[in-house]
Automatic annotation (TrEMBL):
Name of the protein this chain belongs to: HPr family phosphocarrier protein
Lineage: Bacteria, Bacillati, Bacillota, Bacilli, Bacillales
Family annotation (InterPro entries): HPr-like, HPr-like_sf
Highest taxon of source: Bacteria
Domain HPr stretches: 10-70
Amino acid sequence: MSSNNAAVVEIAQTASKFTSSIVLHSDNKYIDVKSILGLFTTLVSNKSYELHVHGPDAEEATKAVAEAFAKNGLSVTVATD
């Protein structure tokens, strides 16, 4: 199943508001959440993803990006590393 275009754009735009590194981990792949192309080729609604956020505004970025995923019906867990 292909990803929802609006969801991909919204997630990437949300991530781009932050300076932190925001990366999705899925199937041994790491995808920059700020990359619309990376998300287009990766996101499918029936998969679960792990979110890695590192940087000065990581707390706010994690919350905002996780909310964008949830709002679009995508499953994501936040890595605690």
